[in-house]
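Risk register update: the risk of archive-format incompatibility is retired. Evidence:
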Amino acid sequence: MKPLQISAETALMLSKKLNVPLEQIMHMPQHILIKKLMEISEEEESKKEE
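Archived output:
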């Protein structure tokens, strides 16, 4: 599997946000990464509503 086609800055931001090592972010399947990003987005939306 080839690494994700994202910038270094994006990878660092995702690593911090998801609390996952940078290497794992770069080799994470795209559909799993998108799912995790959606979960984070939903959590942030619910925090804003409270």
